[in-house]
Amino acid sequence: MRPSAVRLLNILVPVKRTVDYAVKIRVNPDQKGIDLNVKHSMNPFDEIAVEEAVRLRERLKDEVKSIKVVTIGPPKSAETLRTALAMGADAGIHVEVPESAPAPEPLGVAKALRAIIEREKEKGGIDLVIMGKQAIDDDAGQTGQILAGLMDWAQATFASKIVVDVAKKEANVTREVDGGLEEVRCRLPLVVTTDLRLNEPRYASLPNIMKAKKKPIEKLTPSDLNVDLTPRLETLKVTEPPKRVGGGKVESVDELIAKLKEAGITPVKA
């Protein structure tokens, strides 16, 4: 029997709808951003976060009470939530913004997540936030750290392994750092950001996709959370990198040196 005094784990997983990783990015005609009329999918690092939440429940069994996913985005972002629900999450929260609205910045997203966590206190609270270390569209890699700072929670970034002890209200997280691996022990509540080698996300089965259609999604607006998602930065211009010039062949070292000199490059003697 599980002691009644042991608190069950409530997990929150933020996910983002991004341009699919396999799409070749192109700048839009007004040079204010990229062409978004292409295939979108869940941010790959967020898929890893959803998978890890589901695996934690499989490992901890009845010690995980709920897995809730949240996204901030236009109406089409509901598809991303349904994907997460099909992978095994229980319910979703959609903070809906207009299709034409600019993408919120990490600080705005973190403030919205803080407001959601505060709302969830009435339903048992959030003990663990698992999220991707970065989104592949802006590559900011800031939201998890900002959220932990706003909440004054422990944080463990770039996780490649997560072990949670619900009874002790702590987690051991193995982090990927420049010199190798680092293991940190953190008290719950905790914000964890996921790295690529944490796991390999599962494919949602057809039965689970059908079940996901019946799982609840709560719709909110930024005003419901008393959060302003207006960007603080303005994009002046977006341009593609210069096209690479093809190389050429030379017949001898002397010809190579001559070509380098023509290009304004002075060869250095060994």
TrEMBL record:
Residues 30-229 form the Electron transfer flavoprotein alpha/beta-subunit N-terminal domain. One of its GO terms (molecular function) is electron transfer activity. PROSITE patterns: ETF_BETA. The keyword Transport applies. GO terms for cellular component: mitochondrial matrix. It is found in: Mitochondrion matrix. InterPro entries: ET-Flavoprotein_bsu_CS (IPR000049), ETF_a/b_N (IPR014730), ETF_b (IPR012255), ETF_beta_N (IPR033948), Rossmann-like_a/b/a_fold (IPR014729). The electron transfer flavoprotein serves as a specific electron acceptor for several dehydrogenases, including five acyl-CoA dehydrogenases, glutaryl-CoA and sarcosine dehydrogenase. It transfers the electrons to the main mitochondrial respiratory chain via ETF-ubiquinone oxidoreductase (ETF dehydrogenase). This is Probable electron transfer flavoprotein subunit beta. It comes from Obba rivulosa.
